[in-house]
Amino acid sequence: MTDAELLTLAGELGFDRAAVLDTGEIPLEPAFRKYCQDNVCGKYGANYACPPDCGTTEEMARRLRAYRRALVLQTCWALDGQGAEQIRSAKASHNRMTRTLLDRCGGGLMVGASGCDVCSPCLRPAGEPCRFPELRFSCMSAYCIHVAKLAERCGMTYYREGTVHLFSLCCFDRLEEP
Ligand code: SF4
Known about the structure:
Layout: H1 3-12, E1 17-22, H2 33-38, H3 57-65, E2 67-78, H4 84-104, E3 109-112, E4 138-139, H5 147-154, E5 163-174
């Protein structure tokens, strides 16, 4: 698909904003890994797509840069007072939309708005193998993507009071084996 076709499809699927970048333009900040280790989201060591299981910061960067082009996708959600449950639901919707877009394009690498939620719960805590390795996706944080800088680069709003802005990527044009 051309860049223009990708942007049109993103709009048709309901994304609020979208932009196409070279993966080399995606700002990475390996020091952000410490935020995963702080485990505020509860997925550190509890999800195969999250640190430490997903790989080192270097391995994640290589996985991303193994694709040439990235479609940056944003949805914006006005907060309605439901708190964490609304955000969880919004992330799940955003991830489903991202998967749909990737499937419509014939595949690629998905970077989600949150850690992999294909199974509930993930089988990592039970010590069982990942059930759907071909559908597994890591989140922006697991790749140490500096989302505020990325949003600025794409001309997208990163923060506005009363609104949650969610981001994901679909990466295309494989250059090498990740
Ligand atoms: S596909 Fe299922 S088992 Fe595999 S990482 Fe995702 S949630 Fe966990």
